[in-house]
Protein backbone atom coordinates (compact mmCIF):
# COMPACT_ATOMS: atom_id res chain seq x y z
CA UNK A 1 0.00 0.00 0.00
CA UNK A 2 1.23 3.47 -0.92
CA UNK A 3 0.70 6.36 1.47
CA UNK A 4 0.42 10.09 1.02
CA UNK A 5 3.18 11.60 3.14
CA UNK A 6 2.92 15.04 4.69
CA UNK A 7 6.34 16.21 5.74
CA UNK A 8 6.99 19.36 7.71
CA UNK A 9 10.32 20.92 6.64
CA UNK A 10 10.07 23.64 9.30
CA UNK A 11 7.66 25.28 11.71
CA UNK A 12 9.25 28.69 11.18
CA UNK A 13 7.28 31.35 9.37
CA UNK A 14 7.87 34.84 8.01
CA UNK A 15 4.18 35.87 8.06
CA UNK A 16 1.39 36.18 10.58
CA UNK A 17 -1.74 35.30 8.65
CA UNK A 18 -5.00 36.26 10.27
CA UNK A 19 -6.45 32.72 10.51
CA UNK A 20 -3.27 30.75 11.14
CA UNK A 21 -2.99 28.95 14.45
CA UNK A 22 0.79 28.54 14.24
CA UNK A 23 2.44 29.37 17.57
CA UNK A 24 6.06 30.28 18.24
CA UNK A 25 7.48 26.93 17.12
CA UNK A 26 10.94 27.11 15.68
CA UNK A 27 12.23 23.79 14.40
CA UNK A 28 13.68 22.52 11.13
CA UNK A 29 13.65 18.82 10.25
CA UNK A 30 17.14 17.43 10.82
CA UNK A 31 19.21 15.60 8.22
CA UNK A 32 18.91 12.45 10.32
CA UNK A 33 15.11 12.60 10.12
CA UNK A 34 15.23 13.39 6.41
CA UNK A 35 17.19 10.16 5.96
CA UNK A 36 14.73 8.12 8.01
CA UNK A 37 11.77 9.47 6.03
CA UNK A 38 13.50 9.00 2.69
CA UNK A 39 14.42 5.38 3.43
CA UNK A 40 10.76 4.56 3.80
CA UNK A 41 9.31 7.04 1.33
CA UNK A 42 10.74 5.57 -1.83
CA UNK A 43 9.09 2.23 -1.00
CA UNK A 44 5.77 3.38 0.40
CA UNK A 45 5.02 6.91 -0.78
CA UNK A 46 3.12 8.06 -3.83
CA UNK A 47 2.60 11.76 -3.17
CA UNK A 48 4.75 13.80 -0.86
CA UNK A 49 3.29 17.02 0.53
CA UNK A 50 6.16 19.13 1.78
CA UNK A 51 4.37 21.42 4.23
CA UNK A 52 2.39 21.24 7.42
CA UNK A 53 2.83 24.12 9.79
CA UNK A 54 5.19 26.98 8.92
CA UNK A 55 6.59 28.22 5.63
CA UNK A 56 8.41 25.32 3.97
CA UNK A 57 10.88 27.44 1.97
CA UNK A 58 12.31 28.79 5.23
CA UNK A 59 13.91 25.34 5.72
CA UNK A 60 16.35 26.54 3.05
CA UNK A 61 17.63 25.53 -0.36
CA UNK A 62 20.08 23.04 1.12
CA UNK A 63 17.29 21.26 3.02
CA UNK A 64 15.25 20.74 -0.16
CA UNK A 65 18.22 19.83 -2.28
CA UNK A 66 19.30 17.18 0.25
CA UNK A 67 15.78 15.81 0.59
CA UNK A 68 15.24 15.49 -3.18
CA UNK A 69 18.58 13.73 -3.59
CA UNK A 70 17.69 11.23 -0.87
CA UNK A 71 14.38 10.42 -2.57
CA UNK A 72 15.70 10.46 -6.09
CA UNK A 73 15.45 6.73 -6.77
CA UNK A 74 11.72 6.72 -5.97
CA UNK A 75 8.86 7.71 -8.21
CA UNK A 76 7.61 10.50 -5.96
CA UNK A 77 5.51 13.55 -6.81
CA UNK A 78 6.00 16.56 -4.59
CA UNK A 79 3.57 19.31 -3.68
CA UNK A 80 4.78 22.39 -1.85
CA UNK A 81 2.29 24.94 -0.52
CA UNK A 82 4.00 28.23 0.01
CA UNK A 83 3.20 31.80 0.92
CA UNK A 84 5.24 32.70 -2.17
CA UNK A 85 7.49 35.28 -0.54
CA UNK A 86 10.77 33.38 -0.80
CA UNK A 87 10.87 31.83 -4.24
CA UNK A 88 14.03 32.92 -6.02
CA UNK A 89 16.01 31.73 -9.03
CA UNK A 90 17.85 29.03 -7.04
CA UNK A 91 14.69 27.53 -5.54
CA UNK A 92 12.89 27.70 -8.88
CA UNK A 93 15.80 25.96 -10.61
CA UNK A 94 15.86 23.18 -8.01
CA UNK A 95 12.07 22.64 -8.09
CA UNK A 96 12.13 22.52 -11.88
CA UNK A 97 14.54 19.56 -11.75
CA UNK A 98 12.23 17.38 -9.66
CA UNK A 99 8.51 16.65 -9.89
CA UNK A 100 7.53 19.65 -7.78
CA UNK A 101 4.16 21.40 -8.08
CA UNK A 102 3.99 24.76 -6.35
CA UNK A 103 0.76 25.91 -4.74
CA UNK A 104 0.65 29.57 -3.75
CA UNK A 105 -1.67 30.53 -0.91
CA UNK A 106 -3.20 33.83 -1.89
CA UNK A 107 -6.64 34.00 -0.18
CA UNK A 108 -7.62 37.07 -2.17
CA UNK A 109 -6.94 38.73 -5.51
CA UNK A 110 -7.78 42.10 -4.03
CA UNK A 111 -4.60 43.74 -2.65
CA UNK A 112 -6.25 45.22 0.45
CA UNK A 113 -8.08 42.00 1.45
CA UNK A 114 -4.90 40.07 0.67
CA UNK A 115 -2.84 42.28 3.03
CA UNK A 116 -5.50 42.07 5.72
CA UNK A 117 -5.35 38.26 5.74
CA UNK A 118 -1.78 37.44 4.71
CA UNK A 119 -0.12 39.81 7.12
CA UNK A 120 3.42 40.64 6.02
CA UNK A 121 3.06 39.35 2.44
CA UNK A 122 2.73 41.18 -0.86
CA UNK A 123 0.57 40.30 -3.85
CA UNK A 124 3.22 41.83 -6.15
CA UNK A 125 5.76 39.32 -4.86
CA UNK A 126 3.31 36.46 -5.47
CA UNK A 127 2.90 37.66 -9.05
CA UNK A 128 6.67 37.84 -9.47
CA UNK A 129 7.03 34.29 -8.05
CA UNK A 130 4.32 32.91 -10.34
CA UNK A 131 6.08 34.42 -13.34
CA UNK A 132 9.42 33.00 -12.27
CA UNK A 133 7.91 29.54 -11.70
CA UNK A 134 6.37 29.57 -15.19
CA UNK A 135 9.61 30.64 -16.79
CA UNK A 136 11.25 27.63 -15.16
CA UNK A 137 8.49 25.27 -16.32
CA UNK A 138 7.06 24.57 -12.84
CA UNK A 139 3.39 23.66 -12.57
CA UNK A 140 1.63 26.27 -10.42
CA UNK A 141 -1.66 26.49 -8.54
CA UNK A 142 -3.29 29.00 -6.26
CA UNK A 143 -5.17 28.24 -3.08
CA UNK A 144 -7.71 30.27 -1.14
CA UNK A 145 -8.70 29.69 2.47
CA UNK A 146 -12.22 31.08 2.70
CA UNK A 147 -12.94 32.95 5.91
CA UNK A 148 -15.03 35.86 7.10
CA UNK A 149 -12.71 38.45 5.45
CA UNK A 150 -12.92 37.05 1.89
CA UNK A 151 -16.12 35.02 1.81
CA UNK A 152 -17.95 37.65 -0.26
CA UNK A 153 -15.25 37.82 -2.90
CA UNK A 154 -13.37 34.51 -2.98
CA UNK A 155 -14.55 33.73 -6.50
CA UNK A 156 -12.46 36.65 -7.80
CA UNK A 157 -9.41 34.43 -7.52
CA UNK A 158 -10.63 32.71 -10.70
CA UNK A 159 -9.85 35.79 -12.80
CA UNK A 160 -6.48 36.07 -11.08
CA UNK A 161 -5.84 32.40 -11.91
CA UNK A 162 -6.74 32.88 -15.56
CA UNK A 163 -4.64 35.99 -15.97
CA UNK A 164 -1.64 34.35 -14.29
CA UNK A 165 -1.81 31.08 -16.27
CA UNK A 166 -2.02 28.80 -13.28
CA UNK A 167 -2.87 25.16 -13.78
CA UNK A 168 -5.29 24.67 -10.90
CA UNK A 169 -7.12 26.41 -8.08
CA UNK A 170 -8.04 25.11 -4.63
CA UNK A 171 -10.44 26.16 -1.90
CA UNK A 172 -10.62 25.36 1.77
CA UNK A 173 -12.39 27.09 4.60
CA UNK A 174 -11.66 28.06 8.15
CA UNK A 175 -13.46 26.19 10.90
CA UNK A 176 -11.05 27.15 13.68
CA UNK A 177 -10.33 29.79 14.91
CA UNK A 178 -13.96 30.76 15.18
CA UNK A 179 -12.98 34.45 15.06
CA UNK A 180 -12.13 33.96 11.35
CA UNK A 181 -14.87 31.55 10.36
CA UNK A 182 -18.02 32.71 8.61
CA UNK A 183 -21.69 31.88 9.04
CA UNK A 184 -23.13 29.81 6.22
CA UNK A 185 -25.94 31.43 4.30
CA UNK A 186 -27.75 30.00 1.26
CA UNK A 187 -25.82 32.50 -0.92
CA UNK A 188 -22.46 31.29 0.39
CA UNK A 189 -23.44 27.66 -0.10
CA UNK A 190 -24.45 28.56 -3.64
CA UNK A 191 -21.05 30.19 -4.29
CA UNK A 192 -19.29 26.98 -3.24
CA UNK A 193 -21.70 24.86 -5.29
CA UNK A 194 -21.01 26.85 -8.43
CA UNK A 195 -17.26 26.92 -7.99
CA UNK A 196 -16.35 23.50 -9.53
CA UNK A 197 -18.22 24.21 -12.78
CA UNK A 198 -16.80 27.74 -12.95
CA UNK A 199 -13.32 26.27 -12.58
CA UNK A 200 -14.02 23.82 -15.35
CA UNK A 201 -15.51 26.55 -17.54
CA UNK A 202 -12.30 28.54 -17.12
CA UNK A 203 -10.25 25.53 -18.24
CA UNK A 204 -8.72 25.07 -14.78
CA UNK A 205 -8.32 21.98 -12.62
CA UNK A 206 -8.89 21.75 -8.90
CA UNK A 207 -6.11 21.28 -6.39
CA UNK A 208 -8.47 20.67 -3.48
CA UNK A 209 -12.07 21.53 -2.67
CA UNK A 210 -13.94 21.03 0.62
CA UNK A 211 -15.24 17.46 0.79
CA UNK A 212 -18.41 18.66 2.49
CA UNK A 213 -20.41 21.87 2.58
CA UNK A 214 -23.80 22.14 4.26
CA UNK A 215 -26.20 19.73 2.61
CA UNK A 216 -23.68 18.58 -0.01
CA UNK A 217 -20.84 16.17 -0.54
CA UNK A 218 -18.15 16.39 -3.20
CA UNK A 219 -18.16 13.38 -5.51
CA UNK A 220 -16.07 13.17 -8.68
CA UNK A 221 -15.40 16.90 -8.57
CA UNK A 222 -19.06 17.95 -8.19
CA UNK A 223 -21.26 18.66 -5.19
CA UNK A 224 -24.29 16.43 -4.70
CA UNK A 225 -27.12 16.80 -2.19
CA UNK A 226 -27.19 14.68 0.91
CA UNK A 227 -29.20 15.03 4.08
CA UNK A 228 -27.97 14.86 7.65
CA UNK A 229 -24.36 13.67 8.02
CA UNK A 230 -24.83 10.23 9.52
CA UNK A 231 -22.57 7.19 9.28
CA UNK A 232 -19.66 9.16 7.91
CA UNK A 233 -16.22 7.70 7.91
CA UNK A 234 -12.67 8.89 7.51
CA UNK A 235 -10.47 7.22 4.95
CA UNK A 236 -7.79 9.88 5.24
CA UNK A 237 -6.39 8.32 8.41
CA UNK A 238 -5.76 5.01 6.60
CA UNK A 239 -3.67 6.37 3.77
CA UNK A 240 -1.83 9.35 5.27
CA UNK A 241 1.35 9.66 7.27
CA UNK A 242 2.41 13.03 8.63
CA UNK A 243 5.88 13.63 10.00
CA UNK A 244 6.57 16.88 11.83
CA UNK A 245 9.94 18.63 11.78
CA UNK A 246 10.76 17.00 15.13
CA UNK A 247 9.87 13.47 13.93
CA UNK A 248 6.40 13.03 15.43
CA UNK A 249 4.11 10.88 13.31
CA UNK A 250 0.35 11.25 13.01
CA UNK A 251 -2.28 9.98 10.58
CA UNK A 252 -3.81 13.30 9.66
CA UNK A 253 -2.31 16.74 9.27
CA UNK A 254 -5.24 18.24 11.13
CA UNK A 255 -5.15 15.86 14.09
CA UNK A 256 -2.21 16.27 16.48
CA UNK A 257 -2.49 12.72 17.93
CA UNK A 258 1.06 11.43 17.88
CA UNK A 259 1.51 7.69 17.40
CA UNK A 260 5.28 7.78 17.84
CA UNK A 261 8.51 9.60 17.08
CA UNK A 262 10.84 8.47 14.29
CA UNK A 263 13.83 9.29 16.49
CA UNK A 264 12.72 6.37 18.71
CA UNK A 265 10.77 3.90 16.60
CA UNK A 266 10.87 2.90 12.93
CA UNK A 267 8.06 3.75 10.55
CA UNK A 268 7.64 0.05 9.73
CA UNK A 269 7.04 -0.73 13.42
CA UNK A 270 4.65 2.21 13.76
CA UNK A 271 2.59 0.98 10.84
CA UNK A 272 2.13 -2.39 12.52
CA UNK A 273 1.44 -0.91 15.95
CA UNK A 274 -1.64 -1.35 18.10
CA UNK A 275 -1.57 2.40 18.73
CA UNK A 276 -2.15 3.11 15.04
CA UNK A 277 -4.96 0.56 14.76
CA UNK A 278 -6.70 1.92 17.89
CA UNK A 279 -6.46 5.51 16.64
CA UNK A 280 -7.93 4.61 13.24
CA UNK A 281 -10.78 2.82 15.02
CA UNK A 282 -11.36 5.71 17.41
CA UNK A 283 -11.47 8.19 14.49
CA UNK A 284 -14.12 6.03 12.81
CA UNK A 285 -16.14 5.39 15.98
CA UNK A 286 -19.31 7.13 17.18
CA UNK A 287 -17.14 9.22 19.47
CA UNK A 288 -14.15 10.44 17.42
CA UNK A 289 -11.48 12.81 18.81
CA UNK A 290 -12.74 16.39 19.24
CA UNK A 291 -10.66 17.61 16.31
CA UNK A 292 -12.46 15.12 14.01
CA UNK A 293 -15.77 16.52 15.13
CA UNK A 294 -14.96 19.78 13.35
CA UNK A 295 -13.33 18.17 10.31
CA UNK A 296 -14.88 19.00 6.98
CA UNK A 297 -13.05 16.19 5.18
CA UNK A 298 -14.74 13.39 7.05
CA UNK A 299 -17.99 15.32 7.26
CA UNK A 300 -18.35 14.90 11.02
CA UNK A 301 -17.68 18.62 11.25
CA UNK A 302 -20.81 19.61 9.42
CA UNK A 303 -22.90 19.50 12.56
CA UNK A 304 -20.57 21.94 14.28
CA UNK A 305 -20.07 24.37 11.42
CA UNK A 306 -21.23 27.87 12.31
CA UNK A 307 -24.71 28.40 10.95
CA UNK A 308 -25.25 24.81 9.90
CA UNK A 309 -26.95 23.35 12.98
CA UNK A 310 -29.23 26.34 13.34
CA UNK A 311 -30.28 26.59 9.75
CA UNK A 312 -30.01 23.05 8.43
CA UNK A 313 -33.77 22.68 8.40
CA UNK A 314 -34.23 25.72 6.21
CA UNK A 315 -31.33 24.70 3.97
CA UNK A 316 -32.85 21.28 3.52
CA UNK A 317 -36.45 22.25 3.05
CA UNK A 318 -36.39 25.52 1.22
CA UNK A 319 -33.31 26.88 -0.32
CA UNK A 320 -31.36 24.05 -1.88
C1 LIG B 1 -0.47 26.18 7.24
S1 LIG B 1 -0.09 26.75 5.63
C2 LIG B 1 1.58 26.20 5.41
C3 LIG B 1 2.17 26.57 4.08
C4 LIG B 1 2.48 28.03 3.85
N1 LIG B 1 3.01 28.68 4.96
C5 LIG B 1 1.27 28.76 3.30
O1 LIG B 1 0.75 29.66 3.95
O2 LIG B 1 0.87 28.41 2.19
C6 LIG B 1 -0.99 25.66 4.54
C7 LIG B 1 -2.36 26.17 4.14
O3 LIG B 1 -3.19 26.19 5.31
C8 LIG B 1 -4.04 27.33 5.23
N2 LIG B 1 -4.50 27.69 6.58
C9 LIG B 1 -3.88 28.43 7.51
N3 LIG B 1 -4.61 28.55 8.63
C10 LIG B 1 -5.75 27.85 8.40
C11 LIG B 1 -6.94 27.58 9.18
N4 LIG B 1 -7.08 28.07 10.41
N5 LIG B 1 -7.90 26.82 8.63
C12 LIG B 1 -7.77 26.31 7.38
N6 LIG B 1 -6.69 26.53 6.59
C13 LIG B 1 -5.69 27.28 7.10
C14 LIG B 1 -3.15 28.39 4.61
O4 LIG B 1 -3.88 29.45 4.04
C15 LIG B 1 -2.37 27.58 3.57
O5 LIG B 1 -3.04 27.59 2.33
S1 LIG C 1 2.31 31.83 5.78
FE1 LIG C 1 1.32 29.85 6.18
S2 LIG C 1 2.22 29.10 8.10
FE2 LIG C 1 2.77 31.26 7.91
S3 LIG C 1 1.26 32.35 9.10
FE3 LIG C 1 0.51 32.26 6.97
S4 LIG C 1 -0.76 30.39 6.82
FE4 LIG C 1 0.47 30.26 8.72
TrEMBL record:
Write out the GO MF terms. Answer: iron-sulfur cluster binding; metal ion binding; oxidoreductase activity
Source organism of the structure: Desulfomicrobium baculatum (strain DSM 4028 / VKM B-1378 / X) (Desulfovibrio baculatus)
Enumerate the spans annotated as Elp3/MiaA/NifB-like radical SAM core domain: 3-194
Arranged from A to Z, the UniProt key words for this protein are: Iron, Iron-sulfur, Metal-binding, S-adenosyl-L-methionine
| The protein, known as | Radical SAM domain protein
Q: Which cofactor does it need?
A: [4Fe-4S] cluster
Pfam families named in the record: Radical_SAM, SPASM
User: So what family is this one in?
Assistant: Belongs to the radical SAM superfamily. Anaerobic sulfatase-maturating enzyme family.
Q: Which domain of life is it from?
A: Bacteria
